[in-house]
Write a structure and sequence with these properties.
290 residues; alpha/beta; Rossmann fold; 2 domains; ten-stranded mixed sheet; globular
Length: 290
């Protein structure tokens, strides 16, 4: 365990892995989880919520600072849920509020199903539950093509295909990156070192974990509507105000329909917790206080 400026960093051995998790703040316990997002991606939101919550973030097994014994183990939502439950056990907590975004929202749904009573309120932010869509077969085929792109054309091409399929404007992003490259070439080399061979290998390994062992498992997860609606957890379905162009808009609305709930609108799009963490935290506090 290490402590820095109120931040407590811990590690936890679970079957097949060693998890890194972080605790900050004081107040009601709130788990902020993603997949494949690690604790680092949620740092702005965690800082904002730590003013009045004890906030726990973590690196899923095989990602960030969490290790895994078998890199070929599938990252199923149920396995990820068991890891989060183990963190609750390590904290000595019977239950907690949970904010899960994207694949982390799917983890949260599995947690509320497999470990009833451990979740007080689950805020499921834009879960990519493609099986809930009427054209699920088409989306399964698109997922398989993205994975094939990873093996055929490499990491960068696979992420571009993934982002395009999700509805992001990849061409506009590429044009902005090209302009930045041109400006950099005129101004001189960019600050900071190039990734070391070890860093590059880590990035590829983490991408392989996502494309080969997580993407299918997450997008093909089918929530147990009966268990979720009858269980003790309050389920809040959260949707970004600017996510109308994204595939997760459709999947989030499908989950809301399945659970007979109206989606609660949060600031920004799929990454609203990064672009506007303060405003996002205000909305999250309001939802958790109801």
């Amino acid at each position: 365990m290490t402590t820095t400026d109120g931040l407590i960093c811990r590690s936890l051995d679970v079957p097949g892995a060693r998890l890194h998790y972080e605790v900050r703040g004081c107040g009601p316990l709130l788990l902020v989880i993603g997949s494949p997002m690690t604790a680092a991606e949620f740092l702005p939101l965690a800082h904002a919520m730590a003013a009045d919550h004890t906030v726990v973030t973590y690196d899923p097994r095989g990602l960030g600072r969490s290790t895994i014994h078998d890199p070929d183990q599938d990252a199923t939502p149920d396995l990820r849920a068991d890891d989060v439950a183990a963190i609750l056990d390590a904290l000595g907590a019977d239950s907690a509020d949970v904010f899960g975004s994207s694949g982390g929202a799917v983890t949260g749904l599995a947690l509320a199903t497999r470990h009833p009573g451990r979740v007080r309120t689950l805020v499921a932010h834009e879960p990519p539950l493609l099986e809930l869509l009427p054209d699920a077969a088409r989306h399964r085929a698109a997922t398989e093509e993205i994975i094939a792109t990873f093996h055929r054309d490499g990491v960068a091409a696979a992420w571009r295909a993934f982002m395009a399929n999700a509805g992001f404007d990849v061409e506009a992003t590429a044009a902005a990156e090209a302009a930045e490259v041109t400006a950099t070439a005129e101004a001189g080399p960019p600050p900071g070192p190039e990734p070391t061979p070890d860093e590059a290998a880590t990035r590829r390994a983490e991408s392989a974990r996502f494309f080969d062992h997580e993407l299918r498992e997450t997008t093909r997860y089918l929530p147990d509507a009966a268990a979720l609606t009858a269980g003790p957890a309050r389920i809040v379905v959260a949707l970004g105000a600017q996510s109308g162009h994204l595939l997760t808009d459709a999947t989030t609305r499908a989950l809301a329909t399945l659970l007979h709930r109206e989606p609660v609108i949060f600031p920004g799009d799929h990454g609203g917790f990064l672009s506007a963490p303060g405003e996002f935290a205000t909305t999250l506090r309001t939802v958790l206080s109801r």
